[in-house]
Amino acid sequence: MTVTTNNANPSLLRLLIVDDQPLIRRGLAMMLATEPDIEIVGQAADGLEAIEQALATRPDVVVMDLQMPRVSGTVATREITAKLPGTRVVVLTTYDYDELVFEAICAGAQAYLLKDASETDVLETLRAVQRGESRLSPAIASKVLEQFRACARRASQPDAHSMNITSTREVTSADSAPPATPPPTPTPKPTASNLFDEPLTDKEERILDLLAQGNSNKQIAATVYLAEGTVKNYVSRIMDKLHARSRIELAMRAVKRRG
Q1: Is residue 188 left, alpha or beta, with left meaning phi > 0 and alpha meaning psi from -120 to 50?
Q2: How far apart are CA 169 and CA 164, in angstroms?
Q3: Which residues share a beta bridge with 15?
Q4: Three-class SS string for 7-49?
Q5: What is the pLDDT of residues 146-184, one digit of tens each?
């Protein structure tokens, strides 16, 4: 069988479906194949088949389950995104364990949905990911933001052990030698981390808050009474100001800005 790897219609979303449960895999394929802008290019029953089929068909998007035999969805996601930078992965799973969520995102997943998501949510997510956006279901967004907050809290707390060591060294030095003149403190070079606090307008701050809560552009538009395209422009401008490369990274920056 000859496999076509070039997409003659750039607006067509070429999709690979990966799930170890045949009924779910085929049901998804039947549902999504009815959409005029979606073409199902393959189905895989585990992570190993997913990697093989992705390399053969070069899909735009892969719908990926996580818990599968032979090779997990997380490993497959990492391999596919590394070898096919233009292919994006949407996780669709029943599991919302913290470690699975963070591993999948770190592996390169652009979106994370639970299998109780509506058909509309699945379709909107697939199309958003094809456009280069990132999407998280509200429950998953909450987990990710809480993890970011926990990391920010840990980073802001001094290490008591290090403080004790420093204190001990200072006392020893003071007892054995006269105090030395400390060297001048070098002026820190500007970095992305201390440049990203470029001021945002009130409207941008509001949109950033809604985005950090896991809202889509459409949901944000309905909340702030703007057109969806206008919200998209706002998000792009905020990403530029905060030097973020994705919506997930933007959410992380939002948490850091608020301490």
Answers
A1: beta
A2: 9
A3: 40, 61
A4: CCCCCCEEEEEECCCHHHHHHHHHHHHCCCCEEEEEEECCHHH
A5: 655 565 555 556 554 444 544 444 444 444 445 555 555
242 touches 253 (CB < 8 A)? yes
Using the Cα atoms of residue 111, residue 112, residue 113 and residue 115 in order, give the sign of their dihedral: positive
pLDDT in tens, 61-103: 999 998 888 888 889 999 999 999 899 999 888 876 667 777 8
Q: Which of 44, 54, 50, 57 is nearest to 7 (CA)?
A: 57
Domains of the chain: 13-142 (3.40.50.2300), 194-257 (1.10.10.10)
Which one-letter amino acid corresponds to residue 243? H
Secondary structure (DSSP) of the chain: -PPP-S-SSTTSEEEEEE-S-HHHHHHHHHHHHTSTTEEEEEEESSHHHHHHHHHHH--SEEEE-SS-SSS-HHHHHHHHHHH-TT-EEEEEES---HHHHHHHHHHT-SEEEETT--HHHHHHHHHHHHTT--EE-HHHHHHHHHHHHHHHHHHHS--HHHHHHHHHHHHHHHHHSPPPPPPPPPPPPP-HHHH------HHHHHHHHHHHTT--HHHHHHHHT--HHHHHHHHHHHHHHHT-SSHHHHHHHHHHHT-
Count of Cβ atoms closer than 10 Å to residue 154 Cβ: 9
Are 129 and 111 in contact by the 8 Å Cβ rule? The answer is: yes
Tokens of 98: 């913290």
CA distance 252 to 246: 10
AA letter at 12: L
Cβ atoms within 10 Å of 188's Cβ, excluding its own: 7
